[in-house]
Design goal:
Largest sheet: 2 strands, parallel
Radius of gyration: 25 Å
Number of domains: 3
Oligomer: single chain
Number of strands: 2
Structural class: mainly alpha
Length: 543
C-alpha cells in the first residue's frame, strides 16, 4: 500500500482560514434569511474586517503554502463581495415580485434581535400580510422567487413557533391573522409549484458579459467568454470527427445520430442497472491501479455506496450523481412509459462507462476522500474548475490510454465529451443574452443527441440558481487546464502520473492556474499567478 501523506507539511494560513470560516458560519446561522438587509449589512462588515486582517499580514514573510493561501483567501473575499452585491440586486428584484416579503423579513429580523413585541400592532401587521399575499401575482415561472417564498414560509413558521403557546397575550391577538397569513402563503407556494414538465419556458436569468468577466478573473482565467466558446467549438469538432469514425465502424457511415440511437438501445432491463454500475466502478479502479496512475486508499475503495434516484429528482438530474454515494438514475415502475424509455436509453452501459468513473474513482469520490484528509481548510476556496475539471481530465486521459475498447464504448464516452463541449457554448451564450433556455434544450438535442426530457433536465439544472454561472463551462475548460499541466510536468518527465495526480489531491482546491505554479515549485506574488493561457501551446493531433 502506498502512502500519500507528507512527513512535513507547511501549515500555510490554515488557522486563519478556519477562523474566517467559523465567523462566516456564525453570521450565516444568526442571520438566517439569505436575502435580508440585516444579513447583507453584517456580511459586508465581516468581509471588510477580514480584508483588513489579511492586508495586515506581511506577504513576504509567509512560506510557500502561506503565499498560496494568501492569494486564495484574497480572491475568495473579493469574489464574496461581488456575490453579495449580486444578491442585493436580486433581493431588490424579488421584493418587487413578492412585495409581502418585506413584512415577513421584518418579523424575522425583529425576533432574531430579541426586540420587544407589541401584540396589537403585530396582529394588524399579520392581518395586512394575509391580504398582501392574497393579492400578490403568481410567480410560477420565476424559480428564484419561488425559492425565496419558501424561505419566507420557513421564517414565518419559526416566528409562530417562538411566540404562540409561550406568550398568552401575543397568542390571543395574533393567532387568527397568523394562521390566515400562513394558509395564504401555503396556497401561494402550491400555486407556484407547477410540475417542471408543464413549465414553458424553463426559467433562467442571464448575468451579462461584465459579470462573466468578473467570474473569469476570480477563476484566474485570462480569457473572454467568446474565446472559451471558441475552445468548446474546436473540441466539439474533434469529437464529431471521432464520432464519425466510430459510426462508420458500426456500419452507419457518417450518420452518427443513427449510431447514437443504436448505442442508446443497448440499455439494460429493469433491475440490472445496480450490478452494471458496480462492475463499471470496479473496472475503473482496476484500470487506474494496474497502470499506477493514482494512489487509491483501501478505505476509499471500501466505503463508496449506491442509492437509486427518485423519479422527481430525475426531472432535473436525469443522469448519475456521485461522490461517496453514487446516485443511480433509472426508471421506477411508477413512471410513464415515455419517461421509462428516456431514462433507460440515457443511462445505457456505454454512456455509463464515462459517468461511473467520473462520479466514483478516480473521480469525485476519490477527490472528496482526499480533500477531507489533506489541507481540508482549502475546501473554502471551492471552484468547479478544480472539482469538475479533475473528473473531466480523467475522461480525457482514460480515452488516450484505451479505456474505451469498442466503437459502442467510444460513442458512449464521446456523447459525454460532446456534451461538455456544448455546455461551454450554451451556458455562456445564455448568460451573454444570445440564447433562450428553449434554444439551449434544442442545441443539446441536435448537437449532442440528448433525449428531449433529459436535455430539459440538464438546462433546468444549469439555470435554476443551484450552480454558479461558469459551472457548466468549468468541466471541459478545467479538464483542458489540467491536461495542459500534465503535458508540462508528466510529458517532460518531471513527474510520473501517480506523483502528479497524488500531488493535486494533496494540495486540495484551487484554480488550476495556481495549481500549476504550486506543482512546478513556483510561488505566486500577492496579486496571484502570472496570467496563463493554457490553450496557447496545445500540440496538434492530441485530444
Amino acid at each position: 500500500m502506498h502512502s500519500t501523506r507528507a512527513t512535513s507539511v507547511d501549515p500555510g494560513l490554515c488557522f486563519l482560514v478556519d477562523e474566517f470560516a467559523a465567523d462566516h458560519q456564525a453570521v450565516t446561522r444568526r442571520y438566517k434569511l439569505s436575502l435580508s438587509p440585516a444579513r447583507f449589512e453584517r456580511m459586508a462588515r465581516l468581509l471588510r474586517e477580514w480584508k483588513g486582517r489579511l492586508a495586515d499580514l506581511s506577504f513576504d514573510e509567509l512560506g510557500p503554502a502561506g503565499k498560496v493561501d494568501y492569494v486564495l483567501f484574497q480572491k475568495h473575499l473579493w469574489r464574496s463581495e461581488i456575490a453579495l452585491g449580486r444578491d442585493r440586486e436580486e433581493a431588490e428584484r424579488l421584493n418587487e415580485v413578492v412585495p409581502f416579503s418585506v413584512d415577513i423579513v421584518a418579523l424575522d429580523e425583529s425576533r432574531e434581535a430579541m426586540e420587544p413585541i407589541d401584540p396589537v400592532a403585530t396582529a394588524e401587521r399579520l392581518d395586512a400580510l394575509a391580504v398582501s399575499i392574497e393579492e400578490a401575482e403568481a410567480i410560477a415561472e420565476d424559480a428564484p422567487a419561488l425559492e425565496w417564498v419558501k424561505e419566507l414560509q420557513g421564517a414565518l413558521d419559526r416566528w409562530a413557533e417562538f411566540y404562540v403557546g409561550y406568550d398568552p397575550t401575543i397568542a390571543w391577538w395574533v393567532r387568527e391573522p397568523l394562521e390566515r397569513a400562513r394558509a395564504r402563503l401555503a396556497d401561494f407556494v402550491t400555486a407556484a409549484e407547477v410540475p417542471p414538465s408543464r413549465r414553458a419556458p424553463i426559467p433562467g436569468r442571464p448575468i451579462g458579459r461584465e459579470a462573466i468577466l468578473q467570474d473569469l478573473e476570480a477563476e484566474m482565467l485570462p480569457y473572454t467568454p467568446e474565446e472559451l466558446i471558441g475552445i468548446g467549438e474546436r473540441e466539439y469538432a474533434w469529437c464529431l470527427n471521432e464520432m464519425h469514425r466510430a459510426s462508420e465502424e458500426l456500419g452507419f457511415g457518417k450518420d452518427w445520430h443513427a449510431a447514437l440511437e443504436y448505442v442508446k438501445n443497448t440499455f439494460l432491463p429493469p433491475g440490472a442497472q445496480p450490478k452494471m454500475v458496480r462492475d463499471l466502478a470496479i473496472e475503473a479502479i482496476q484500470f487506474v491501479e494496474s497502470r499506477e496512475l493514482v494512489t487509491v486508499p483501501e478505505l476509499a475503495k471500501e466505503t463508496w455506496r449506491m442509492e437509486m434516484m427518485s423519479p422527481e429528482r430525475q426531472k432535473v438530474s436525469p443522469f448519475f450523481l456521485g461522490g461517496e454515494t453514487i446516485i443511480v438514475s433509472y426508471p421506477t415502475d411508477a413512471m410513464t412509459h415515455d419517461e421509462k424509455r428516456m431514462s433507460m436509453r440515457g443511462n445505457n452501459p456505454n454512456f455509463s462507462r464515462a459517468t461511473v468513473q467520473h462520479e466514483l474513482i478516480p473521480g469525485h469520490h476519490l477527490q472528496m476522500y482526499m480533500t477531507e484528509r489533506f489541507r481540508k481548510y482549502r475546501q473554502l476556496f471551492s471552484t468547479p474548475f478544480w472539482i469538475e475539471g479533475w473528473t473531466l481530465y480523467w475522461e480525457l486521459l482514460l480515452w488516450d490510454l484505451g479505456f474505451p475498447r469498442t466503437p459502442e464504448e467510444r460513442i458512449g464516452m464521446l456523447f459525454w465529451r460532446m456534451h461538455r463541449c456544448v455546455r461551454i457554448s450554451f451556458s455562456l451564450r445564455f448568460h451573454l443574452g444570445e440564447l433562450t433556455t428553449a434554444e439551449c434544450v434544442d442545441i443539446l438535442v441536435e448537437r449532442v443527441g440528448h433525449e428531449r426530457a433529459n436535455a430539459e433536465g440538464e438546462v433546468r439544472r444549469s439555470f435554476n440558481g443551484t450552480y454558479p454561472p461558469l459551472y457548466q463551462a468549468a468541466y471541459m475548460i478545467g479538464g483542458l487546464q489540467f491536461r495542459a499541466i500534465e503535458r508540462e510536468l508528466v510529458g517532460s518527465g518531471r513527474m510520473t502520473h501517480r506523483q502528479f495526480h497524488d500531488a493535486i489531491m494533496r494540495e486540495n482546491e484551487m484554480p488550476p492556474a495556481l495549481m500549476r505554479m504550486v506543482l512546478s515549485g513556483e510561488t505566486p506574488d500577492a496579486s496571484g499567478p502570472t496570467p496563463w493561457r493554457f490553450d496557447s501551446a496545445r500540440p496538434e493531433g492530441r485530444s
